[in-house]
Amino acid sequence: MRPTIRSISVTCLWLVALGALAPTASAAPRCQQGYVWREAYPGDVVCTMPERREQARADNAEAPARREPGGGAYGAATCRQGFVWREARPGDVVCVTPRTRDEVAQDNRAASRRVAGAAQAAPRDRTCTVFEDRDFGGAHWTLQNGDVLRMVRPPDLGISDGIHRFIYEASWNDKISSFRMGPTCTLTLWEHVNYGGHHFRANRARSYVGDSWNDKASDAVCECEGLPNW
To answer: Based on the domain organization, do 217 and 165 belong to the same domain?
Structure first.
């Protein structure tokens, strides 16, 4: 039986995802202290936090189980419901959670600033500030790089997952109307706590979040270039 164009395309995708040559030791960049090579695929020397490298290894190991049995719209590379392609580079079709794909994209954007010798943003620039009113008015809360503002009562246990620091303040639930952040920061608002429901992500100030998000957020995540401020 002659292979179809579709099967050839899927095979090429997997070859691209899994088959790059590793760079030579002299050419590979050295990461700043606190970062390691991600190693999501052979030759992946994007600098990331150790926890995310472990996540990449776990995702690679789970990849076969996360594909749709019998294929689907994208052939053998089709992910099961709830998973998306990682896209650490073009052709990376390892199936991961949407949050992991977002973290991978963030690492890719930050790659050039995490190698040894790269300049880092000043700590004062690595913050996100949310405001109760539009046009940056009313009460405000400033999040440091790596902070997650969870707008619920604090639990009995757990203030960090090793990457983020959790801050619990129920009085801010459904009150954010505007925000701004440092030049290397991204703010993500989630509809529900624990990264639940819809989310809204931005890397520039918004004097108004819009009618669809005004007074709707229950989680706010500040992520900037460099190690967490804490």
So the answer is: yes
Partners of 143 in the beta sheet?
Answer: 128
* Residues 140 and 86 reside in one and the same domain: no
Look-up of token digits 């460099």: 226
Does the global pTM surpass 0.70? no
pLDDT band at 133 (very low <50, low <70, confident <90, very high): very high
- Mind listing the pLDDT tens digit for each residue in 39-79? 999 999 999 889 999 999 999 999 999 999 998 999 999 99
Query: Is the residue at 1 inside a domain?
Result: no
- The domain containing residue 50 runs over which residues? 17-113
**181 and 141 together in one domain:** yes
What percent of the chain lies above the pLDDT cut of 90?
50
The two structure tokens encoding residue 137: 């008015």
